[in-house]
Amino acid sequence: MNAPPRPQPTDPRDRPARLTVGVVGAGRVGPALAASLALAGHRPVAVSAVSEASVRRAGRLLPDVPVVTPAEVLARAELVLLTVPDDALPGLVEGLVETGSVRPGQLIVHTSGRYGTKVLDPALRAGALPLALHPAMTFTGTPVDVQRLAGCAFGVTAPEELRLAAEALVIEMGGEPEWIREESRPLYHAALALGANHLVTLVAESMELLRTAGVEAPDRMLGPLLGAALDNALRSGDAALTGPVARGDAGTVAAHVTELRKHAPETVAGYLAMARATADRALAHGLLKPELAEDLLGVLADGAEGDKR
C-alpha cells in the first residue's frame, strides 16, 4: 500500500526556519533526513562528506548546502544529525567533544539502530541535548527516500525531558515514533537486520537460482509470490508458513539440498539453517505433524553433516 502524500500547504522557503540543520556523514540516510526536515520548515546549512559519491549524494538531496568539515557543521547548526556507521559513532562523538565543537543547548541526533543515547554521553556532558532517532527504512541515497519516510517508524530513545522534541522531529519528517528502551536497542536493531537485511540476501540468492534453472525474469516470478508471503506473514505470523518444510515433505527437502550442493553449494548452509528454524516454528505451532518431523529433521541433520565433510 502506498503511503499517503505528505501535506505541503506552502513553500517551506516562505515559512520562518525554526532550526538550522547540519549533517555529519553524507551516506544514504543523513541527506534524506535533512531534506525531509527542510520540507517541514527547518534549514539545512552544512553537510560533511568525504567520498565523491557522498558529495554527489549531498548535492542531489541538499542542493546549495555547503560541504564543510564536521567541526564546521557543528559550528553552523543548531540541530546536528550524526549519520555515520555504527562502529564509527562513539569515536566521532568523543572527537567532536574533545575539539570543543559541541555547544551547550545544541541538539545532537544520531541515527544508529544499535545505540541509544548513552553513546552521546560525552556530548551531554558538554551541554548538548541527545536524541537517538533511527528510521526503520532501507535507503537508496536518492530523492525517493524522502517520500518513503511518510509513515516510516522511527526507533526513538531520548531523555524524558526531550521526548516531546524527539516526537516532534519524527512527525515533521513524516514518521511515526516508536519508543525503544536504551537496553533494548541492540535487540531492536538485530530484529530489523534479521528481517530486512537478510531478506535482501535471500531474494538475491533465489533470483540467481531461478536464472540457473532457466527462468528469464526471476523478478517477475518472485514479485507476486514474495509480496503475498510478506503480507500473509505480517497478518498471520507463523500461521502463514507453507511449503515442504511446514508440510513435512522430507523427500522434497532432500532433493533441494542435493540440487543446491550441485549448483550453488554456498547456499546450502543458509538453506539448512532456515529450514531448521522453519521446522521448529511449524512444530511449535502445530503445523508440522510430529510423525513427519522425524524424517525431515533427519534430512536436515544429514545435510549439515555433509557440509562438515
Describe the structure.
This protein is an alpha/beta fold. The protein has 13 helices and seven strands. It has a seven-stranded mixed beta sheet with strand order 2-1-3-4-5-6-7. Helix 12 packs antiparallel against helix 13.
Residue-averaged pLDDT: 92
Total beta strands = 7
Biggest β-sheet description = 7 strands, mixed
CATH 4th-level superfamily of the largest domain: NAD(P)-binding Rossmann-like Domain
Question: Strand-residue fraction?
Answer: 5-15%
Query: How large is the count of helical segments?
Result: 13
In the CATH hierarchy, the third-tier topology of the largest domain is known as: Rossmann fold
- How many domain modules? 2
The assigned CATH architecture of the largest domain is 3-Layer(aba) Sandwich
List the uncertain runs. Answer: 3-17
Spatial strand sequence of the major β-sheet: 2-1-3-4-5-6-7
- The end-to-end distance, rounded to whole angstroms, is 47 Å
Structural class: alpha/beta
Helix percentage: 40-55%
Based on CA atoms alone, the radius of gyration comes out at 24 Å
Overall form = elongated
Key attributes of the depicted protein:
single chain, 309 residues, alpha/beta, Rossmann fold, N-(1-d-carboxylethyl)-l-norvaline Dehydrogenase, domain 2, 2 domains, seven-stranded mixed sheet, 13 helices, 7 strands, disordered N terminus, DUF2520, Rossmann-like and DUF2520 domain-containing protein
Summarize the topology.
Layout: E1 20-24, H1 30-39, E2 43-48, H2 52-61, H3 70-76, E3 79-82, H4 89-98, E4 107-110, H5 121-125, E5 129-135, H6 144-148, E6 153-157, H7 163-172, E7 176-179, H8 185-212, H9 218-236, H10 244-247, H11 250-263, H12 268-284, H13 290-308
Parallel strand pairs: 1-2, 1-3, 3-4, 4-5, 6-7
Antiparallel strand pairs: 5-6
Helix pairs in contact: 11-13, 12-13
